[in-house]
Design brief:
Order of helices and strands: EEHHHH
Shape: flat
Distance between the termini: 43 Å
Keywords: Membrane, Transmembrane, Transmembrane helix
Strand content: under 5%
Structural class: mainly alpha
Number of domains: 1
Largest sheet: 2 strands, antiparallel
Helix content: over 70%
Low-confidence stretches: none
Number of strands: 2
Radius of gyration: 17 Å
Mean pLDDT: 85
Strand order of the largest sheet: 1-2
Number of helices: 4
Length: 105
C-alpha cells in the first residue's frame, strides 16, 4: 500500500493501519454493547459504532498520512517522543477502563 501526503511524499502506512485497526477493535467490541447498556437497540448501536469508526479513520488519515512531514521526526528529540508514547499508552488504557465501567455494573 503506497500512501502519500499532500506534498506527494511517500508515507509509511504502518502507523495508520495500526491505529485504524485499534479503532476498529474498540468501536465494534465496546460500541454496540455500550450503547445497548444505554438503552439503544443493537442495530442502532452498530450504526453509531460504524459512524464513530469512520470518523476515527478519517481523523487518523488526516493526522498520520495527509499532514505527515517526514522531516518532523528529526526536529523532535527522542526523549520527548518516548514520553508522548508512554502518555498515549496510559491514556488509551484509561479510556478502555472507562469504557468497561458501564458494562461491569
Amino acid at each position: 500500500m503506497k500512501l502519500r501526503n499532500r506534498e506527494g511524499t511517500a508515507v509509511d502506512p504502518v502507523p495508520f493501519l495500526v491505529v485504524t485497526g485499534v479503532a476498529f477493535a474498540i468501536a465494534y467490541s465496546y460500541g454496540p454493547l455500550y450503547f445497548a447498556a444505554l438503552g439503544l437497540p443493537i442495530g442502532y448501536g452498530v450504526a453509531v459504532s460504524t459512524a464513530l469508526f469512520l470518523a476515527a479513520t478519517a481523523g487518523t488519515y488526516y493526522r498520520l498520512v495527509w499532514t505527515h512531514r517526514p522531516v518532523r521526526r528529526e526536529e523532535v528529540p527522542v526523549g520527548e517522543r518516548f514520553e508522548r508514547l508512554v502518555l498515549a499508552t496510559v491514556a488509551c488504557v484509561g479510556v478502555v477502563a472507562l469504557l468497561a465501567l458501564p458494562l461491569a455494573m
